[in-house]
Amino acid sequence: MENQSNNTPVIPNKRYFTIGEVSKICDVKAHVLRYWEQEFKELEPIKRKGNRRYYQQKDLAMILKIKELLQNKGFTIEGAKNMINVDEVKSEPSSSKHMLAQIKSDLENILSILKR
Q1: What pLDDT does residue 25 have?
Q2: How would you classify residue 78: left for phi > 0, otherwise alpha for psi between -120 and 50, otherwise beta?
Q3: Is 50 exceeded by the pLDDT of residue 4?
Q4: Residues 50, 64: Cα–Cα separation, whole Å
Q5: pLDDT grade, residue 45 (50/70/90)?
Q6: CATH classification at residue 23
Q7: Diameter of the chain by CA atoms?
Q8: How many domains are there within the chain?
Q9: Burial letters for 21-55: b for 16+ Cβ neighbours within 10 Å, e otherwise?
Q10: DSSP E strand boundaries for 1-100
Q11: Does residue 100 lie in a domain region?
């Protein structure tokens, strides 16, 4: 499941992934994934009946980022947490609320056009 050009795994176009699927795709053992969930607040799979975890594509992207920081760049858990926090601050120049408000406004405009 690796992309030959840059060794990053190809994430299938699915909505939800089981811990087993994530383990294979990201090449990280399931117990490590469960540990990372405790350490990284950004990693929050949906839990359903029987405490089964269902990961979304954003979770896989976060897992790959954590893996890169810990295994390839040699960061400690604390160092990786700090890097992720710094990246989140950088990637949010405008707040998420503002973006959602803009999307809502755009959808309302589309709806009014369709009602005509």
Answers
A1: 93
A2: alpha
A3: no
A4: 26
A5: very high
A6: 1.10.1660.10
A7: 59
A8: 1
A9: ebbebbebeeeebeebbeebebbebeeeeeeebbb
A10: 46-48, 52-54
A11: no
